Amino acid sequence: MDIESKLFQLGESARFDLCNSRKERESNFSYLIHPAVLPGGGCINLLKVLYTNECSGECFYCANYCNLPKKRLSFIPDELARLFLSFYQQGFVKGLFLSSGLGINPNQTQQEMIDTVEILRKKFLFRGYIHLKILPGVKEDLIIRGLDLADRVSINLEAPSEKRLKMLSRRKVNYDDLLGKISFIKNTIERRYLKKDQTTQLVIGASEESDKEVLTRTYNLYQDFLLKRVYYSAFKPLPSTPFSDKEATPLIREVRLYQADFLLREYNFHLKDILFDSGDTLNKEIDPKLMYARLHPEIYPVEINKADYFSLLKVPGIGPKSAKRIIENRRKNNYKSTVELKNTGAVLKRALPFITLNGKILEKLNEDTNQLKMEWREAM
Ligand code: SF4
After folding, report:
1. Which of 55, 70, 98 to mutate to test the pocket of ligand 1 (most atoms within 8 A of CB)?
2. Domain range spanning residue 196?
3. Is 198 helix (H, G, I), strand (E, B) or coil?
4. Do the domain assignments include residue 276?
5. How many structural domains comprise the chain?
6. What digits encode the pLDDT tens for the residues 210-219?
């Protein structure tokens, strides 16, 4: 098979791995090129590809499920490094996201992935962004080599617990071992003062896990393992896989999880601030921040000209950037009108019922907060 066909097939299979991708660009290479937000901000196009779609793993939802009748392909390191370089030199991409199936031997596959990155760094002197997938169960010295070469690494947990992971896969996986490797990466980054980070990915809705289970794991990953991001991938059934008859997860579930995740990661919310119903699910109609605000009338309205940063962050429609701008601008002059507030980037439509300006209430909440409170307290 020619290299181009290989690239298209292994690029197509890589789309199930998430890497901070934004909307895909329309082009002949849209399978392969993914605009992604970088850890320090800014957005670049990444070539996203699998090293191999061969996999000894038996994950019931996966496009690379080992019993699927599909052609198994693999790059060799020099070939993939040159391919990437030609994309880079033609200006299609500025970075690489390299993932992979396990291959026949995960250590061997990881070794070859690292060799690819090493060729790029040392032979072709590529200094741009590389996100390298770490395969489950690989040796720690390979992880260290990967960390030396890549900007970001990730191990996919796929599920919030061992019990849930077993429902997704026949593969022998030791969940504690996965967490152990994540911890090893964290410790290596800290010990060696590396300017690198790690992320992970969870499949949502394939193992009957609740939103609360997912976000409890997420909170633990942010607090104890210092992960940069957790990505959520709403389950979609693929033909011929053991889960082909399972219902797809509604996208709104993924959206609500990302919103709650954002609160935990950027807004200083504690897990106990996220409200779940009796089935441990997030509300599909109302986003988690608005839900929190409606159920905590005791902390609102917040006075725009006096509130501290964290109180401002609790206001729907005010995010970290607008909260910082409000505080900076306030040092010079107190806010006098909502027009001035709008210039901070705050979404006034959402914020007005929860703030006062110089003591003045700007808009009354029209929903029946007490009723909502009663219903959710009963459900919880
Ligand atoms: S280990 Fe599982 S999820 Fe990963 S590529 Fe193999 S079958 Fe797919």
Report:
1. 55
2. 3-269
3. strand
4. no
5. 2
6. 999 999 999 9
